[in-house]
Amino acid sequence: MTVRGRHWLLLWLLVFLGATAAVVARQREALLTARRVGELRTDRAALEARRDDLRRRIRVGSSRPVLVPKVERMGLRIPADSEQTVLRVVPPDPDR
User: How is the chain split into domains, by residue range?
Assistant: First the structure.
């Protein structure tokens, strides 16, 4: 049995439709991925802004102008500069 012209036409039409459907599916996935990436970037920017705000609040809260009035209210004494000790945290030795 030989394949006639209309059968070839039908075969090529099916191949074309299959390839077109694959391209459309890939483009749809790409658009959904791009939208999700945009949402994640927005979330990340908001979280970074929140982190920066919290760091600023910690810096302000631990500053001398904020702490001195609280220390005086509690009746504590303010240490001199020579009395302050900087403690360094040494990371644990991974060999132990």
Answer: 5-78
Model pTM score: 0.59
For the stretch 49-80, pLDDT in tens is: 999 999 999 999 989 899 999 999 999 988 88
17 burial (CB, 10 Å; 0-12 / 13-18 / 19+) is exposed
Asked if residue 24 lies in contact with residue 17, where contact means CB atoms within 8 angstroms, the answer is no
Q: Give the integer Cα–Cα distance in Å for 85 and 57.
A: 24
State both tokens at 42.
Answer: 């927005």
Q: What is the pLDDT of residues 28-52, one digit of tens each?
A: 999 999 999 999 999 999 999 999 9
The CA–CA distances, whole Å, from 34 to 23, 31, 47, 57, 63 equal 16, 5, 20, 35, 43
